[in-house]
Amino acid sequence: MNVDTLLTRYATGDRDFSSVELSGANLARAKLSGINLIRANLSQAKLRNANLNGAFLVLADLTQADLSGAMLIAVNFSGANLQEANLSHSELIEAILTGTWLQRANLTNANLTGAILAGANLIEANLQRADLRGANLYGADLRKADLTGASMTHANLRGANLEGAIMPDKVITV
Hints:
By secondary structure, the chain is low in regular secondary structure. Helix content is 5%, strand content 0%. The N and C termini lie far apart (45 Å). The relative contact order is 0.10.
């Protein structure tokens, strides 16, 4: 499926795009609230400044996707479901991931600099070598998450549940 077809179908009310092939697609600034992208291939997709509020991205492949955004016009995944999604090597700079379900998600080598993950479910998430500098993880659930080698300088971990989490050797938080 191409981007134009997806956007046209979405505009007419279709929300089910499970297992869609959109590798490398340019969906920058797209407004796709509530879309179903379960098992979708969005590897290397450009989702800069996209609004995916309430999207279902369970088991989606977002490897090397660009999900970064400016501070005021950030990618918005608030309340989205990304359980077991592959976000390895993705750009999520200043992304809004408040309350997002990222349980067992693969965020290896993801750039989450300045991302807002307040209240996010990151239970058993793989955050190895992730860049979490300046990220807001206030109240996030990081039980059994693997943060080996993660950069967490000035990350906000207040109220976060770190029970059983594998932490990096050195953590400098606010």
